[in-house]
Write a structure and sequence with these properties.
By secondary structure, the protein is an all-alpha fold. It has a single domain, classed as 434 Repressor (Amino-terminal Domain), CATH 1.10.260. Helix 1 crosses helix 3, helix 2 crosses helix 3 and helix 4 crosses helix 5. The protein is elongated, with a radius of gyration of 20 Å.
Length: 111
């Protein structure tokens, strides 16, 4: 099934496309899973968007790729928010009425 242009990119796809495939020779999922201490199935599910990044996974992925755990957690949070927004729009959920009243923009001070 082809992904729509608006589909959010899962962190597992980032791992595969931006890290594992960029090495010469490319790092196999089997090798990456072994380095992470994961099973191949677990890594493959992650790469295919069937598993999410957890705090513990983020630490391991950061060590594997030379990035930070925050990098992986932020990718997951962005993915989750985009998926939630898209699902909410598809279901036609009305927008929440804010408690905050909109205020006019403050006048600029000229000095």
């Amino acid at each position: 099934m082809a992904k729509a242009v608006t589909d959010p990119i899962h962190p597992g796809e980032i791992l595969l496309e931006e890290f594992l495939k960029t090495y010469t020779p490319p790092v196999s999922q089997t090798d990456a899973a072994d380095r992470l201490g994961w099973t191949f199935v677990r890594l493959n599910q992650f790469v295919n968007g069937k598993r999410a990044v957890t705090a513990a996974n983020a630490i391991a992925l950061g060590e594997l790729t030379g990035t930070s755990p925050e990098f992986w957690m932020n990718l997951q949070v962005r993915h989750d928010l985009r998926m939630a927004q898209r699902n909410r729009e598809r279901r036609g959920v009305p927008k929440v009425r804010s408690l905050v009243k909109k205020r006019p923009a403050p006048a600029q001070v000229v000095r």
